[in-house]
Design a protein that fits this description.
The protein has 288 residues and is mainly beta. The protein is built from no helices and 18 strands. Strands 4, 8, 9, 12, 13 and 14 form a six-stranded mixed β-sheet that branches. Strand 6 and strand 7 form a beta hairpin.
Amino acid sequence: MEDGPGVYIGSFMPQVVGIHNILISLKPRLIDSPREAQGAIEGSPFSPNFRAEDGLIRPESSRVVNSYGSELTTFPRATAGEDLEVLMQAYTCPLPLLCIAKRTGGDVFRVRISETGGDLNQTFEVFDHSKPQYYSWPTYLAGRYSFRLDGMGDFQRAGTYQVDIRACKGSLVEGQCDEGHVPTRIKPSRPFQLVVRPAQTDASRSFARELRFPPEDTPPSELNNGDGWRAGELLTFTIQARDRFGNDQRYDPTDVYDSRVLWDVNITGDGGRLATTSFQQVTVASPA
């Protein structure tokens, strides 16, 4: 059937779930000779994957989950330089008060992450676990989606990030919402907060504030190198602990896996004589 100048519409109803081949070619007219017959249109054959219909996705009920499918209301804290994978589960609501996990894929999830007070603002690729590369996974992962954060590429800087996750009903065009549907935030209908904490302290990136500028200065510039300090006076200096990416350490007393950084400070006088023993081992910590 023709729908306007040069536009034709075809329709069909697939009866079987799975990948189909659609070959579209120009049918020769009766008056055409075999040599005048045209071949397939650009891109043909097409290979859409028709999925079973287990309900329309409801973004407001879809959620971030752990590997067991339990809902996560907050993101686990990440560490600078380490990868982080986040799982999402699509939900459908067949009844007003009944929402269940979908068991088929093909919908669209979009993830955008921005840094609070920073310049990072980018979209991340989302993987549909119903695709062939995930067929070896347990079947309950159908309806699951995930995205991965590259610690060495995207998250070397400690700080707080906002993770905006939206979803919509998929169309035959991969990655696009179906007609009449727009990306809507998943549960809890607001961006998630991702806290990236510093990695392990690296002595080569740490520095004494009163003695030198930060080591990223090339070459490091001396502030005063102790000029003006006098013997017999109580003198203090501050060590700024940093990780290998240059992030300032933040001691968090609520984190049982965190600990203060211990520094060995050896001070010797002229001729190698020990000038003082009061700084043999110093506990230095930045406030959270």
